[in-house]
Design brief:
The protein is built from 17 helices and no strands. The chain is mainly alpha-helical and 342 residues long.
């Protein structure tokens, strides 16, 4: 009851931001609800002089709700279908994820970017944008400003990819009678699901391919999403080792992010249920709730973010994001060419 009393005002304010952000994200899918949530949250917080009464609710929405969103994300994953149809793109996915993390590590050192921001940009760029940031942020105990900075950078290059990649695909000679090549490119080189969908749908519309490209791109994207599991476990291991300077013995139980286990269980439940004849549509409400929870969490994160500081410190993270984005796109193209996919 004490938490309800303390947390209720902050949660209500976050919900009041999340609902319009959600609908704006539906109207402008290339931007997406999470970005609207962060932007509106950062704007609203400028007009609130005393946030003391809202503090507990905002903290709950930005931390716990974010973990719930990742867990519910698992209900959108049929592991058997993803592993079967994503096998073709798996070498490309492994290489693009690896290059993004390598680039993030070295460029962040070169530019002296704070470690956690660099980790979130590298993970978000390489795996699945906002969902990957949502999974990694609690594990490495990133601040709300670090999360907001990372999401903003990833969003910027998402929009560029959705606008530029269809024209780029045509220029470099992707097959226009099939959606396979561009679908794999969009699924491996574009960060967030909304922008993957936008880019793939544009390619389908340009060449009258129905939903060939979109189906391929979304499957590849979901295969990439599975990388959340090993990445978060590695981050949890490193976080636990660094927490006390490596003085004490490593504790797997202490470092293991339990919400990732629940994410895996949700994926397994979905896979088993679909195998026994349950329609995939039965899980649509849970997938939708997952997306809304991400918007709600980002609204709370926006409330805790200093927009002036974010803009002032934005140059280096954007450069890091560009390096990751360019590296992923280049490796995806090189790998596809080496595998004779285009």
């Amino acid at each position: 009851m004490d938490f309800v009393k303390k947390g209720f005002p902050g949660i209500v304010v976050c919900l009041l931001i999340a609902f319009p952000s959600w609908f704006l994200g539906k109207l402008f899918p290339v931007i997406g609800g999470p970005i609207f949530g962060i932007l509106i949250g950062m704007t609203v917080t400028l007009f609130i002089k005393d946030k003391a009464k809202l503090k507990d609710g905002i903290a709950f929405a930005s931390k716990k709700v974010l973990q719930w969103a990742v867990i519910l994300l698992g209900f959108g994953m049929n592991l058997s279908v993803i592993l079967e149809t994503g096998r073709q793109s798996l070498p490309i996915i492994i290489c693009t994820i690896s290059i993004s993390l390598i680039i993030a590590f070295f460029v962040s050192k070169l530019l002296a970017i704070q470690g956690k921001t660099a980790v979130l940009i590298g993970v978000g760029s390489s795996i699945c944008g906002g969902s990957a940031v949502a999974a990694a942020a609690p594990v490495i105990q990133a601040s709300d400003e670090e999360v907001a900075q990372s999401i903003s950078v990833i969003f910027f290059f998402n929009v560029l990819a959705a606008l530029i990649f269809p024209s780029l695909g045509k220029i470099i000679g992707f097959d226009t009678t099939s959606g396979t090549a561009f679908g794999i490119f969009a699924g491996t080189a574009v960060n967030d699901t909304s922008s993957v969908t936008a880019a793939a749908s544009t390619w389908d519309s340009l060449f009258n391919l129905g939903s060939q490209t979109l189906d391929k791109a979304v499957t590849v994207k979901l295969t990439r999403t599975l990388a959340i599991i090993p990445i978060t476990l590695v981050l949890a291991f490193l976080q636990a080792k660094n927490a006390d300077g490596g003085k004490s013995a490593f504790s797997f139980k202490r470092s293991f992010p339990m919400f990732i286990l629940y994410f895996v269980l949700a994926s397994v439940i979905t896979t088993v249920c679909i195998h026994f004849g349950v329609s995939a549509k039965a899980f649509t409400p849970l997938k939708t709730l997952s997306k809304f929870f991400i918007v709600l969490a980002m609204s709370a994160i926006g409330m805790n973010t200093d927009i002036v500081k974010l803009v002032k410190n934005g140059g280096k993270p954007i450069l890091l994001g560009f390096c990751c984005w360019a590296g992923i796109a280049a490796v995806s193209l090189v790998m596809q060419h080496a595998m004779h996919l285009w």
